[in-house]
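Collaborator request, handled under Task 6.
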Amino acid sequence: MRIIPAIDIIDGKCVRLSKGDYNTKKVYNENPLEVAKAFEDHGIHYLHLVDLDGAKSKHIVNHKILESIASKTSLKIDFGGGLKSDEDLHIAFESGANQITGGSIAVKDRQLFTSWVEQYGADKIILGADAQNEKIAVSGWQEESDLSLIPFIKGYQKKGIKYIICTDIGKDGMLEGPAFDLYKMILNQTKVVETKISGSGVEDLEVIGIHLVASGGISHFDELPKLDQLGCEGTIIGKAIYENRISLKQLENYILENGTS
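Structure tokens returned to the collaborator:
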């Protein structure tokens, strides 16, 4: 399972929110590059970078910070927040994003989001399926839609989406543990069994699923192996790192022991 620390940006600073509420903003570091370099120094290979100003403004804002981190570290960055147009996407990739995450746009303009998957490939486009009470939330989690989580994921799975980040908003930033039951349900209900006929006429059954990245509520190191056992492909860790609930040394050792590079 990939370990993916999070950096959320407001006014160029590294912050964390609780349940997506901008009024709960807490600044942890005024230099996101410094934070990213600390992750890299501990053997971490991935970064989840969120442009919260962009999410609120509905267009990319903090691409210079993305460019700085991408050019001065070797971290593979998935970038999200405010990506609403082809131009936003172009800027994100030009600034060094390895992948982009689309959440609100996947709800409000399915045609455009699907065109991104077709243009850039399913390895480059992540579906942000963030939910409150199993209903998809949009606009930086300021709005709840009437879309149910599982049908929403399955619909995009049919269109080729492979990577999905799911945050249970009620858990996010609360340090109360991740939504194990929710992730188990998603993984179970999105498995696709394909039948393949070999040259000898023997049928092989292959179970294909999504690459699910768990996000929100991580509070203790012991939760990571449990998410791995569930079948999560990655996990995003934010406040637990900044509040020293999980040390970078623990994550470094986990990566070394499990070979999650």
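The cover message to the collaborator said: "The first helix runs from residue 32 to 41. The chain has eleven helices and 15 strands. Please let us know whether this matches your experimental observations."
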